[in-house]
Task: structure prediction
Amino acid sequence: MSTLSLPSALPAPRRPSPDSVPVLRWGVLGTGWIASRFVASLRASTTQQVVAVGSRSQASADAFARRKGGLRAHPSHEALVSDPDVDVVYVATPHHAHLASALLAVGAGKHVLVEKPLGLDATEARSISAAARSAGVFCMEAMWTLFLPRFDVVRQVLEAGLLGDVRTVIADHGEHFDPPHRILDPAMAGGSLLDLGTYVTTLATWALGPALRVLATGETTASGVNGQAAMLLTHANDATSVLHSTLLTRTPTSATIAGTEATLTLPGPFFMPGDVVVTSADGSRAVTWTDPEPFGHGALFHSALEVARCIGDGLLGSPLHTAESVQANMRALDEVTRQLGIATAPG
Result:
């Protein structure tokens, strides 16, 4: 029988407001889809300044700068990280270039926000974090989900113990992709796991702690990348997460965190802004937090606000998404790729 009662309302999120953090000057490394949306999000919702972009060619940098307006266009990654007017570098290069890009920025003494995944595996992630710590600069993986107001509500529910003893996480992330999307290209570290699967494994290891055992099965596409993966993770005290990622089909992309007293549901897509529903274990009562700002990818700015907040506080990492938590997630993904026979490094 339940010994806990649900509150009349879920807690309000505690994320920083745009005007409560220092204004940083951002340089963007990369000119693709996510770089474009990151710049748009910062400009629409913050006072952060995006001042420069760097690419492998002047033409690519110029085209991005023209589309966005008001940016200096650098013809190389080296030129971007050497720009004296750049305080922090947002690494938006393809997955297989994250290590080199992040180390380049860190070596130039720049703070860095690296698109997820931080590296192709736990070893790369550890190398980036160690280099940043040694250089005395801030470093964070841009797992934007964890900095959304929605997830601060979840964080507070877990901290307050409203779910009781959390035993189960269930999550999936499935989208359909057609050629020539880079996610289908093995030379660019494509496949479902690093793009989509990292969201579900991050959720599981965030809620339940590191995976102690991993069991995985999957499917390979004709191009040679992982098409889908089903993962069963065992965590401390035999808590379990049941996870799935696929680039072959569109799935509900929802998530559940279930405890002995209540169940928390994140209607899909769970990794974006959206509602939080907590239902008592016997199903007799539910309480919902409704997201007032369902911005989709327009909410990428929350990760930038976390960077600015931490740098303003003199921190070298975010307490909400530590280097250790990133490496715990990557170790779980490393074991999945090992069991599936996937080569994470291109070539």
